[in-house]
Amino acid sequence: MSDSTIVESYGNRVRDAVATRGSLCLGIDPHPSLLAQWGLADDVGGVREFSHRVLDAAGDLAASIKPQVAFFEAYGSAGMAVLEEVCQRATDTGALVIADAKRGDIGSTLAAYARAWLAADAPFYCDALTLSPYLGVGALSPAFDLAAETGKGLYILAATSNPEAVNLQNATLTSSSESGGAATVAQAVADEVRQRNLAVRGGSEPSFGLVIGATVQNPPHVTSEHGPLLVPGFGAQGGTASDVRRVCGSNLGAAMVNVSRAVLSEGPDVENLRAATSDVIKELSQLGNSD
Question: For the chain, which residues make up each domain, given as ranges?
Fold first, then answer.
């Protein structure tokens, strides 16, 4: 890669975004019930209109925009074409784009997923991509390698907020964690991501991070070396500001707090959406303060 094409690392960009715009990661989740609530058709046109209204309202306010890929993919190739539009338009607003695709596979298949999302000329533009590590963190190597090359970020699912995940992610391994004591599966995932960051960090902030739910009761221990954090579960799902501080620890300055329902339920009026976005940003601005 020539000097003219080097992109600032995602780790640096995410910290800059949090410092200037706050911690809000606004989800674009055009599921059928919300389309109906907004008076939009359950089709590609409805998805496009929904997404554009969200970006008109909040693209210049939120630190990041997170399209949920599944809700576009459900409409086939036309839906994915809308997703391409949404990712580019979100970028044009100055927000970071986190593609919530949760890809996870092995070998050449994972490498193809990586090219689709993380290559410099990827058809689906994003600044960062969510990945599932439950075929082994090592299986994600093609994504780590390409993201390091192109300055993109990764969010690896570590401790998610859905109740079905608790038994698996809290299972104890025979090996110990880096901080001592028995390691949970979630902690082992987190520590492997940390090692990836240490291997490529250079002079930049770490770009490989974790998804840790705000409502998780036994979250993995994280430091700045574990990279940026994506924190779902705040607000409508029961997570509080105290929960966000608890799961993020010293990494609060690199945390994106995902909010969807609290804002999207205020549509379809753009001004209402914008006011709701501003209210959440204001609420999240208090994260650095103790309760």
Answer: 3-284
Chain centre to alpha carbon of residue 281: 17
Q: Are 278 and 26 in contact (CB under 8 A)?
A: no
pTM above 0.85, yes or no: yes
Picking from 7, 11, 9, 3, the residue whose alpha carbon sits closest to that of residue 251 is 11
Query: How far is residue 28's CA from residue 69's CA, in Å, rounded to a whole number?
Result: 9
Considering the candidates 66, 102, 152, 282, report the single residue annotated as catalytic: 102
Contact assessment for residue 231 and residue 244, using Cβ atoms and an 8 Å cutoff? yes
What kind and span of H or E run contains 255? strand 255-259
Q: What is the pLDDT of residues 45-78, one digit of tens each?
A: 999 999 999 999 999 999 999 999 999 999 999 9
CATH topology of domain 3-284: TIM Barrel (3.20.20)
Please give the structure tokens belonging to residue 154.
Answer: 């990764």
Alpha-carbon distance of 275 to 272, in angstroms, equals 5
Is residue 102 annotated as a catalytic residue, yes or no? Answer: yes
